[in-house]
Amino acid sequence: MNGNGERGGEAFSPSSFGALAANPEKWALFLDIDGTLVDIAPTPDAVEAPAGLAASLAVVMTGLGGALALVTGRGIGFVDRLFHPHCFPLAGLHGAELRLPGGRTIAIEPSPAFLQAKAALHAGAASLPGVIVEDKGVAVAVHYRLAPHHRDSVEALMREAAVRAGPRWSLQSGKMLVELKPAAADKGEALKSFMRGAPFAGRQPLAVGDDLTDEDMFAAAIAHGGRAIRIGDGNARTLAAGRIGTPAHMRTLLASLADTWERDRR
Ligand SMILES: O=P(O)(O)OC[C@H]1O[C@H](O[C@H]2O[C@H](CO)[C@@H](O)[C@H](O)[C@H]2O)[C@H](O)[C@@H](O)[C@@H]1O
Fold first, then answer.
1. What pTM did the predictor assign?
2. Catalytic sites, residue numbers
3. What family classification does the UniProt entry report for this protein (predicted)?
4. Domains of the chain and any CATH numbers
5. Residue nearest (by alpha carbon) to ligand 1 atom 13
6. Is the CB of 145 inside a 6 Å radius of any atom of ligand 1?
């Protein structure tokens, strides 16, 4: 539900990004990756960053005085390969890994119980054809996009894994996947960590995401006096008051913001 108690939120007009262009010193931008910046693909490794996206992000980050962070379920290594050669401030694994401006990195370590749970998951998923285990180190995602009929089995497997891993790990559902991740990590806490330090502190956060896991980030952005935008068709229940239809539209808005600032610099 959005701030007005409605589903979905209002369509976000392209000109609203003008608020960032007009007052860049007032805003901080927090961006999810899968389903927000890049299109959803059949498998986790099949995603691609379209030409120009990383460069647009870099220009927008500079325009905002550095106040841009990516907030994602992906790990830092994956994101750096996706946006090579850029290394953006980043909350990875839903906030279990943080790379703050200036490069300082903070990460939660896996426990022996979590490693055992992960090994059991690999073994259990091997008997479910089409199910993919994405091992991300201190988190693990099990995908059923290629085998939706295995959804119940995947959910049962994940519940068992959560019991094995113990209370420091928790389940997170997403688009055709279930993840086991550190319980202390969520995207809302990640946003708050960035907002405590320069150059984010004192700015108004604008959070953009497409999935259930982004709702924590939306709540934190709104609590900081900011705004939230959900990518998608508008049917999802969300806290976001704004909506953008597709990642392609989101990329267009970023590219035009980047163009505006590049033109001004010339
Ligand atoms: O927080 P995000 O950046 O949105 O990451 C969330 C998860 O995204 C990835 O899974 C999703 O995208 C895949 C590729 O498009 C798709 O195949 C899958 O069905 C989606 O759920 C990623 O693989 C996960 O690790 C992220 O947690």
1. 0.94
2. 32
3. Belongs to the trehalose phosphatase family.
4. 10-107+185-265 (3.40.50.1000), 112-182 (3.30.70.1020)
5. 44
6. yes
